[in-house]
Every structure is written in structure tokens, then in C-alpha cells.
Amino acid sequence: MTTGSSNRRIGAEDSGTRARLIEAAEQVLLEEGYAAVTSRRVAARAGLKPQLVHYYFRTMDHLFLEVFRRRAEAGFAQFQRAIADEPSLRTIWSSLTHGTGSAFNLEFAALANHRKAIRAEMANYAERFRTMQLEAVASILSGREPLPDAITPDVVLMALAGVAQLIALERALGVSGGHDEALAFLERYLDNPAGT
Amino acid sequence: MTTGSSNRRIGAEDSGTRARLIEAAEQVLLEEGYAAVTSRRVAARAGLKPQLVHYYFRTMDHLFLEVFRRRAEAGFAQFQRAIADEPSLRTIWSSLTHGTGSAFNLEFAALANHRKAIRAEMANYAERFRTMQLEAVASILSGREPLPDAITPDVVLMALAGVAQLIALERALGVSGGHDEALAFLERYLDNPAGT
DNA sequence: GTCTATACTTCGATAGAC
DNA sequence: GTCTATCGAAGTATAGAC
Fold this sequence. Notes:
By secondary structure, chain A is mainly α. Chain A contains nine helices and no strands. Chain A is about 70% helix and about 0% strand.
């Protein structure tokens, strides 16, 4: 499982069937969780035979990695577009709370916790994403009233990202206590971080 | 699976074997993730036969619920002790970042996302825990310099909980960007939230 | 009350046919 | 390059022996 030194033949990367399997895997992941992403269920969702999963992907982990990379690259590109279009804290906040990203991250975080290859890939993207976000926050804040010295762009970003993640996770559970208050605060803060 | 209206006989709740299975399940959960919590592996960890899992627990979900409740009650009690001993923001922060709690929550959050019974139980405890924490924060802040109106105890708690969760998750991945800065800020903030 | 023998389903993966 | 036939291991759960 770690080495994967089998010499079984693997299908072409540009195969349409392969793309269908990745798409199906992502759907199953979001709807039923990573434990439900089995060769049989993914194939059924794609309308294909289970053995095809193992023809196009050496192991299930290889499939997970492809699903993750596809989503991560898309998120990456989307963030860059959004921040170029309107560089503001509000745009950062939107990107942190947008769509199915949270559910996706939750599944992969749980998966990464116990699978080395996936953890490495996720850490890699997380670092890159954080760096990109940090540059954006620093740039946005530099054009405004200065904040107290202790409140660096890192601190602002960690707080926004942390609260966004927490709210998303609790929403999934059906818990909402404190959310309205936090969102009301952010509603003011995002446009006026210095509080003047 | 949802109803569980089987009339199969189930072992006594005070059985020692049953307790061993719960303990073993928790270990497997933390070490290998929720997908690895199967009757065979739990039993192997406990040095028992796989069929015993199904004698003491109607389904695997019942086992998960027992594992969750045990940990949740323990966390509940521990928070109450700690906050009674030293009521401070620092104690709140410690309780949010303490031990294996984050890994445990991550596993159960992912599980809860797709299993109704577990989601309900987790939501229930999350609400209770949040209420308890909120009372503590409000009580602590009321004995200090007042904060700006917009920064209610809810806002403080959501920020602390969010950042604590984010740092824990990223640490598990091996990502550390921004952590030192956020922790340095908190180091000052926890003792002096009004920033005077 | 406690545990075992057993049924049946689903799993990942490979070797080999087209 | 693409897909299928098939294997052995692991999964949940139940009925029945002690």
C-alpha cells in the first residue's frame, strides 16, 4: 500500500472514463463520506463496472488524491480570480465560507489524519493556500487604517479562517449558537477592521 | 439500520466485556480513524471474538454512540472542574486545545456528517458544551475592563474556539504557518482582552 | 447472561481476454 | 489501450449452543 510497486497496467490519464470516475468519486464523497468511496459504489454512480476503478487507479488512495487535487486546483484558481476582481476582507471571508468546500475539507482532513500520502498532499496545498491568502490580507490591510501592532495579518487571517471553519462545521451538525452574534460582528468588522 | 427493531438479545450494560469493547473502539478510532472501527478490528484490539461486538451492540452505530457519550461526559466534567478551579480565559483556551480532544472531534464530525443518529447526539452535546462555555466567558469578562459593545462573549468564544480548532487540525496535517503569530497574540490577549 | 458457528455481502486488487 | 472474470480477505449481522 505504501510502495505500490505493482506493474499492473494503468489507463491513460486523458481517458474520459477516468474523468467520469473522478467526478463520481467526488459526489459519493460529499454525499456519503469517504468511507463510502469504494470501487463498487463509485463505479455504480458512474454507470461503470467496479474493476475499471482499479484499472485507472492503482489503489483507492490514488483515486482520492486525484479527487483532492482537482478540487484544490479549482479552489486555488477561484480564489485568485475573486481577489483580483475585488481585493477586500469580505472576498477573503466569502472564499472561506463558500459552497461545499467545508464538507470537502472535513472529509479529507479526517482521511488525511490516517493516510500518509493524502496528508502530505493536503499539507502541501494548505500551505500554498495559506500563503496566498496571507499576501492578500496583508495587501488589503496595508491600504487602510493601521491596526494595533499585535494584530498582524497572520492573526486576522487565522481568526477569520478559524471562525469560518467552526461555523461551517457546526452548521453541518445543525448547531447555531453564537453564529448570529459572530456574523453580526464580522458584518461590521470586514469593512472596518480598525474599528474607527 | 435506522430503526433497529430486531429482537436479538443484547448483553448487559454493566458487563466488563462490553466496557473493554468501548475502550478498544476508542483506541482504534483515534489511531486509525472511524472507517477502521469494524467489529473485527475492535475485537482484535480487545482480545475478543468479533461476534461479541454484535452481542453487546445492536449495530456499529450503537458502539460509536457509546464511545462518543463516554468521551463527551468526561470532557464535560473536566471543563467544569477546570473552570471552577480557575475561572479565566486561559482555562477556556486550554480546554479547547487540550489533548486528543481535537482528533476525536474531527473523527466524529466526519462521521456525524453522514449518520443521523450520531449527528443528533453530537449536536446535543455541542449545544450543551457551548452554553456552558458561554456562561463561563460571560462571567469572566464581567469582572474586567468592559470590551467594545460589538464584542460580546459569543464573539470572543467563537473566535477562541475557531482558532483552537483550526490550529489543532493544521497541526495534525503538519502545517504550522501563522500559528506562532496567532499564539503570540493570544498569549497577550488572554490575560488582557480589553487591550489596555 | 454469555459467547460461538455460520450466512451472506461487500471489499480491494490482479491476471488475463479483447 | 480498454475492459472483464475471478480471488481471497474483511465486513455486518443473526440464530442457536452453552
